[in-house]
Design a protein that fits this description.
By secondary structure, the protein is of the alpha/beta class. It contains 16 helices and 12 strands. The strands form 2 sheets. Strands 1-7-6-5-4-2-3 form a 7-stranded mixed beta sheet, with helices on both faces. The longest helix has 21 residues. The model has no long low-confidence stretch (mean pLDDT 95). Bound molecules: pyridoxal-5'-phosphate.
Length: 421
């Protein structure tokens, strides 16, 4: 199946007389004829469902579809994108370990890493997305367990140089984990560029209708956890799970540990209802992404010519400094989000935003409706100016999430709002 077909028909293949649409299995538990049969499920000797905190048929199908879209071997849905990034790292790093991360990441992820995960004893070194190989090399420590980045960072829109970071990670025998939320597998498939683990906030383009918070982790199955002694959680027995050695599960090692250990203990599950809604979004993702990109490019070109605009960041513009990098990894387009600065800084940005009629001010990003946000006064307000700068977010930055309406209407709205600035 090609990508577009996977979007529409992947994973759920009904048999004769079964529902055409992926059913919502709204059940916490599953019935068995004997205790022994259920015991075998607990021992992972037989596949099957017993409790929806560990696995649910609807959630599994959606995770499987996204894994197919990304070209991975397995996946697990989570209750949110935050949970996905936390689990993706916590599955292989414990107190005393260290992670190298791009500094150009979502504000919520930066906080998770820099504050909450540090409290758990996991240390982070942040490197600029345009860091040299030598700078990235210098960030590694003997206890480094992974490298992390975002394909297109939210909201700074830095394009991740997969080759550079994958090479560094693999030279140190650790996996590369990439949050592919903004690009989606329609525009970029990170596994093809050496990424080992892919995460998403499905809340954004995958759902695409701003209806459902969710996340997913996809494993490429490519990383060999037994190549060194850095990953004892996968290569030595888990006494909390009958002494299972996850690496014995081969390509499913990482996913099995995610489900059997982390989801069992931490429980940030996605509800089957949410998975159902995300799947409806996935069925049109391949149609929506090109339209988002086409509209975003039209908006970026318009902004670029407007004298009231100080700067525009959209890697699809031919004269954008990131154009070549974006073309290399995303030849068909990046995403619908563009950012720009209005001359007059913070005050002008506020007047502009308050004057918009079609585009709504929301914290959300990446859905069918055009929306916008001023990160410095909202999502990123907990960060210091120095931290803002490290994340690539200037105080005048407006994040504009271009929807799939008619581009002429979106531009007319921007025009009338700029006229008031
Ligand atoms: C929104 C977002 C997240 C967090 O996802 P939630 O679903 O809001 O928890 C993580 N990474 C990126 C790139 C995001 O845009």
């Amino acid at each position: 199946m090609k990508l577009d077909t996977i979007c529409v028909q992947g994973a759920y293949q009904p048999k004769n007389g079964e529902p055409r649409v992926m059913p919502i299995v709204q059940s916490t538990t599953y019935k068995y004829e004997s205790s022994d049969e259920m015991g075998q499920l607990f021992d992972l000797k037989k596949p099957g469902y017993f409790y929806s905190r560990l696995a649910n048929p609807t959630c599994d199908l959606v995770a499987q579809k996204i894994a197919m879209m990304e070209g991975g071997v397995g996946g697990m849905l989570t209750g949110s994108g935050q949970a996905a990034n936390f689990y993706a790292i916590f599955n292989i790093a414990n107190a005393g370990d260290h992670i190298v991360s791009s500094s150009a990441i979502y504000g919520g992820t930066f906080n998770l890493f820099n504050v909450t995960m540090r409290k758990l004893g996991i240390d982070f070194t942040f490197v600029k997305p345009n860091a040299t190989e030598a700078e990235i090399e210098a960030a590694f420590k003997p206890n480094t367990k992974a490298v992390f980045g975002e394909t297109i960072s939210n909201p700074s829109l830095d394009i991740f140089d997969f080759d550079k970071f994958a090479k560094a990670a693999h030279a140190h025998g650790v996996p590369l984990i990439v949050d592919n939320t903004f690009a989606t597998p329609i525009n970029c498939r990170p596994i093809e560029f050496g990424t080992d683990i892919v995460t998403h906030s499905t809340t954004k383009y995958m759902d695409g209708h701003a209806s459902t918070v969710g996340g997913v982790i996809v494993d490429s199955g490519n990383f060999d956890w037994t190549q060194n002694d850095k990953f004892p959680g996968l290569t030595t027995p888990d006494e909390s799970y009958h002494g299972i050695v996850y690496a014995d599960q081969g390509k499913m090692a990482y996913t099995t540990k995610l489900v059997a250990q982390l989801m069992r203990d931490l429980g940030s599950v996605q509800s089957p209802q949410s998975a159902f809604l995300i799947n409806i979004g996935l069925e049109t993702l391949h149609l929506r992404m090109p339209k988002h990109c086409q509209n975003a490019l039209a908006v970026a070109k318009y902004l670029k010519k407007n004298p009231k605009i100080g700067w525009v960041n959209c890697a699809m513009l031919e004269d954008d400094p990131q154009y070549a990098l974006a073309k290399k990894y995303m030849p068909h387009g990046t995403c619908g989000v563009v950012s720009f600065g209005i001359k007059g800084g913070r005050a002008a940005a506020t007047t502009f935003m308050d004057s918009l009629k079609l585009a709504a001010i929301v914290t959300h990003v990446a859905d069918a409706r055009t929306c916008c946000l001023h990160p410095a006064s909202t999502t990123h307000r907990q960060l210091t100016d120095k931290q803002l700068e490290e994340c690539g977010v200037s105080p005048d930055l407006v994040r504009f999430s271009v929807g799939i309406e008619d581009a002429e209407d979106i531009i007319a709205d921007i025009q009338q709002a700029l006229d008031r600035c």
